[in-house]
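TASK: fixed-backbone design
INPUT:
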């Protein structure tokens, strides 16, 4: 088993983890710190043990939030963060930088903000095309050897990049967007993870809220909501995709589960290597999501879901051309 799976076992973590980005970043909302701390406290109380953050989220605010909220609970957690992509304080723009000296500096800053002496896994958030993946992974590997990290991870990379990085230093987990309506890992990455016994940590397993019914045809996305620039959320594509969602919701009703729970059960069913990390600002949704831990779906239901919302059925790509330029993952033709 990889160090990632070992740690999940040590802390008795359910397969479903908690993606903390939404509390500080991404969808235009601002959650006051006191409310965010209460959400994280409740997440721990209802059973979450895998918490995921990043240097980028909220321009480091998300890491500081977790550092405050998880004080005294550190030994009971799998704590994950990410480096190699951050907000430039002067320009306010994202900067991808995979140079070894940058990753070391960001790691040490993450440890301070998170109030811990080590991270269970630290992901390279994005591939820096100006730096060979071997150099970036090698730098993270040295941080493992020094005891500052327990394991190395990669995010939004192709199977080829994963294999190159893993040959330099063992990679324990890869993050990639994976849900019923985002199937890109099925092109090659999931197979590579299974072969190498690497966890595939599925972010946005609820389709950025779409599969939970958060986005409707008349929805007005908040200023700064990243979904506003994603093609599948455009007015024309969304109208088509909502017709698929109606079928999905009908099936969930027949099975007597919530659509969000059915979506998470589908992700878990793809492989024991897959670990979903849904994110939410709602304590109610957080509780509903972890209840999907005990929901299993049979082969006939899986076949219905795959026919209903595969890569050929969903309208619109997951990223715009500008967003895709920063991504190394395989794409469907």
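OUTPUT:
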């Amino acid at each position: 088993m990889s160090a990632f799976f070992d740690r999940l076992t040590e802390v008795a973590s359910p397969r479903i983890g908690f993606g903390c980005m939404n509390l500080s970043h991404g969808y235009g909302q601002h959650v006051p710190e006191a409310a965010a701390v209460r959400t994280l406290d409740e997440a721990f109380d209802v059973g979450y043990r895998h918490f995921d953050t990043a240097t980028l989220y909220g321009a480091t605010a998300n890491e500081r939030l977790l550092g405050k909220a998880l004080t005294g609970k550190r030994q009971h957690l799998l704590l994950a963060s990410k480096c190699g992509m951050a907000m430039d304080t002067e320009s306010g723009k994202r900067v991808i930088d995979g140079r070894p000296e940058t990753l070391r500096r960001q790691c040490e800053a993450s440890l301070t903000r998170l109030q811990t002496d080590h991270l269970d896994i630290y992901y390279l958030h994005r591939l820096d095309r100006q730096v060979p993946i071997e150099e970036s992974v090698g730098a993270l590997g040295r941080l493992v050897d020094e005891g500052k990290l327990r394991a190395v991870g990669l995010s939004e990379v192709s199977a080829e990049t994963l294999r190159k990085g893993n040959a330099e230093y063992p990679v324990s987990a890869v993050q990639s967007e994976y849900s019923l309506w985002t199937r890109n890992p099925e092109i090659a990455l999931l197979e590579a993870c299974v072969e190498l016994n690497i966890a595939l940590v599925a972010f946005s397993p609820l389709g950025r809220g779409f599969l939970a019914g958060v986005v409707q045809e008349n929805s007005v996305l908040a200023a700064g909501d990243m979904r506003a620039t994603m093609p599948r959320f455009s007015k024309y594509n969304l109208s088509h995709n909502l017709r698929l969602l109606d079928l999905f919701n009908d099936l969930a009703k027949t099975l007597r589960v919530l659509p969000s729970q059915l979506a998470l059960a589908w992700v878990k069913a793809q492989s024991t290597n897959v670990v979903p990390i849904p994110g939410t600002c709602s304590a109610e949704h957080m509780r509903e999501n972890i209840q999907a831990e005990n929901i299993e779906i049979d082969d006939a239901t899986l076949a219905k879901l795959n026919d209903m919302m595969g890569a050929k059925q969903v309208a619109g790509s997951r990223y715009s051309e500008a967003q895709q330029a920063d991504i190394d993952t395989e794409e469907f033709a």
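COMMENT: The chain has a mean pLDDT of 94.
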